[in-house]
């Protein structure tokens, strides 16, 4: 039986979102750990999860990466890599105090937000940082100017904000938020603070926006949307929320195909499938195989953008790679 015949018999299909999976910042961060392991040898220490994905962390651990929570867990003089989510200035100071060789794998789009925070703080602005309390990216950005930054965790928080001068206030945001919810939060803030300034360019990263946009496209046609991603991945969690808000009848987040409950698929004719920005595509392919075994053999890829952005490796790592290559002749 051909695939077309199987599809017509089952009437089941998958709408596969594109863009999905790895973004440029995640790709750079994972490559940073892999190249550091090749160059310096194991173990390489990584502060926090390099990206928020179980599979990626396990894979890098198997190659010799050791994930720690704080610099104090890294032996003095060893190499430590800072995750894609960024760190506060005090983390660099702690690394220097322990004579650690620090390699910064912070996503350049997160670094952009850090630079904005420093600039507005230097100009004595109150900064309203829209983001999720406790998220590593928010902690890192807040650490750039703690006396100037207030966290706004969603629209409900907007009414609690107080500022010194309503004519000198700006909002910034975590890069992995829901675009719609962030706009709602900004609108609520502007009702109270009409002179609120916006960041020079959008802080929510292109990959987060693109992945949410394609999910909005497919969700109205889906009985269920499956998002591949880890629960501590902000952008993955947001994709489930976006799918439900856009009209999907159900939405679920899974790390691996074997977490899919067959009850979710009961009576379904159309399944939407996407993945968060820290998810390798092999995990999506495993979900497609899992769904095909349950009759969902027709796969239609829905494309709303083509991403070509890449980021170069951290300068300190590239310098050492170049020196090693020169030494080999």
Structural account:
The protein is α/β, with parallel strands linked by helices and 329 residues long. The chain has helices at 3-10, 24-40, 54-63, 89-97, 108-122, 136-142, 179-192, 206-218, 234-245, 262-265, 281-292, 315-327, and strands at 13-18, 44-47, 65-68, 79-82, 101-104, 126-130, 149-152, 169-173, 224-228, 251-254, 270-275, 298-303. The strands form three sheets. The protein has a five-stranded parallel sheet, sandwiched between helices. Strands 3-2-4-5 form a four-stranded parallel sheet, sandwiched between helices. Strands 7-6-8 form a three-stranded parallel sheet, with helices on both faces. Helix 8 runs parallel beside helix 9 (234-245). The longest helix is centred in the N-terminal third of the chain and has 17 residues, at 24-40. The radius of gyration is 22 Å and the shape is flat. The N and C termini lie far apart (57 Å). The model is unreliable at 1-8 (pLDDT under 50).
Strand and helix layout:
Layout: H1 3-10, E1 13-18, H2 24-40, E2 44-47, H3 54-63, E3 65-68, E4 79-82, H4 89-97, E5 101-104, H5 108-122, E6 126-130, H6 136-142, E7 149-152, E8 169-173, H7 179-192, H8 206-218, E9 224-228, H9 234-245, E10 251-254, H10 262-265, E11 270-275, H11 281-292, E12 298-303, H12 315-327
């Amino acid at each position: 039986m051909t695939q077309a015949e199987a599809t017509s018999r089952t009437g089941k299909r998958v709408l596969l979102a594109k863009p999905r999976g790895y973004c440029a910042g995640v790709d750079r961060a994972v490559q940073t750990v892999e190249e550091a392991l090749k160059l310096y040898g194991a173990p390489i220490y990584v502060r926090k999860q390099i990206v928020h994905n179980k599979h990626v962390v396990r894979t890098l651990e198997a190659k010799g990466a050791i994930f720690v929570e704080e610099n104090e867990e890294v032996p003095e003089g060893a190499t430590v890599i800072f995750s894609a989510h960024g760190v506060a200035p005090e983390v660099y100071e702690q690394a220097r105090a322990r004579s650690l060789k620090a390699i910064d794998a912070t996503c350049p789009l997160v670094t952009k937000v850090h630079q904005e925070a420093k600039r507005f703080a230097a100009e004595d602005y109150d900064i309203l940082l829209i983001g999720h309390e406790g998220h590593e990216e928010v902690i890192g950005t807040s650490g750039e100017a703690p006396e100037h930054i207030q966290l706004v965790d969603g629209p409900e928080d907007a009414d609690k904000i107080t500022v010194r001068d309503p004519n000198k206030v700006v909002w910034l945001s975590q890069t992995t938020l829901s675009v719609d919810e962030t706009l709602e939060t900004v609108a609520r803030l502007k009702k109270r603070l009409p002179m609120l300034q916006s960041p020079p360019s959008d802080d929510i990263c292109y990959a987060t926006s693109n992945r949410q946009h394609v999910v909005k496209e497919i969700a109205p046609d889906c009985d269920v949307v499956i998002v591949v991603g880890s629960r501590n991945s902000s952008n993955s969690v947001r994709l489930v929320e976006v799918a439900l808000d856009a009209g999907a009848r159900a939405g679920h987040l899974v790390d691996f195909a074997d977490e899919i409950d067959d009850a979710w698929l009961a009576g379904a004719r159309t399944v939407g499938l996407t993945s968060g920005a820290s998810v390798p595509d092999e995990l999506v392919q495993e979900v497609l195989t899992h769904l095909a075994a349950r009759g969902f053999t027709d796969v239609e890829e829905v494309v709303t953008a083509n991403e070509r952005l890449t980021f170069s490796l951290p300068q300190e790592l590239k310098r050492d790679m170049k020196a090693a290559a020169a030494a080999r002749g």
